Amino acid sequence: MEPVEKIQARVEALHVLGLDQTATASDIRNAWRDIAFHAHPDHTGGDCNQFARAKSAYDYLRKNGLAGKGAGPAQPRRPKLRKRIIELDEKDISACLKLLDPSRALSFGETSAEDCPQSARNSDHVPEAIGCYGRDLTYFVATPVCEGENRVALPTSVLAGFRTVETEILSFQAKNGGAGEVVVPDTIRERKFPGARSVRIRFEADQATREQFWQAC
């Protein structure tokens, strides 16, 4: 059911109970009890049409978290965030490798990367998978961070639904090598990662790293 259809169904269910969208969860329960009593077939000579419609409406609102105990206007139950890991296919990885060109790098420090040093070319990284938790992205890179200049090619349109995956090269300086995590600055995230709330890159990420992603809240 599309979001618009869900809204219409909620409005119609409230209308059946004689309520509007400002109704609280308590209002919904009270309206159902009142209709259930007065419209019960025992009180209507066997006519169960109104009772059935009211019960169907109440059941719909209850299943969608609108009739639970609590004060304030009834609100739909928030869906749980779904975690998923997207394994990059050969096409995406090839696109990342092809893009690893010093003249197209984007520095975390917002400086020009046209004269990227040779050391950076020896510290290029490509992710193998992307972890998605709502609008939070985590890129899993198997290679370790190298001391000094590092560059990583990242598919950036994961949450945008583009047919063609957009890829950007980001570069950063590391004081030490090995495993680690880099957080993409908000200034770059907002411009280069449509829809993302946060972007992290985990280096030397093995199976245990992915399991930690699944277990984290």
Q: Biggest sheet: strands, sense, closure?
A: 5 strands, mixed
In which range does the helix fraction lie? 25-40%
Q: In order across it, which strands form the biggest sheet?
A: 1-4-5-9-8
Q: What's the overall average pLDDT, rounded?
A: 79
Order of helices and strands: HHHEHEHEEEEEEHEH
Shape: rod-shaped
- The stretches of 5 or more residues where confidence is low (pLDDT under 50) are 109-120
Number of helices: 7
Beta content comes to 15-25%
List the SSEs and their pairings.
Blueprint: H1 3-16, H2 25-38, H3 49-63, E1 83-87, H4 90-99, E2 105-107, H5 118-121, E3 124-125, E4 129-133, E5 136-141, E6 148-155, E7 167-174, E8 180-183, H6 186-192, E9 198-203, H7 207-215
Parallel strand pairs: 2-7, 3-6, 5-9
Antiparallel strand pairs: 1-4, 4-5, 6-7, 8-9
Could you describe the 3D structure shown?
By secondary structure, the chain is an alpha/beta fold. The protein is built from seven helices and nine strands; from the N terminus they run H-H-H-E-H-E-H-E-E-E-E-E-E-H-E-H. The radius of gyration is 27 Å and the shape is rod-shaped. Residues 109-120 have low confidence and may be disordered.
Brief sketch in words of this structure:
With 217 residues, the protein is α/β, with parallel strands linked by helices.
Characteristic terms for this protein:
22% strand; 34% helix; single chain; alpha/beta
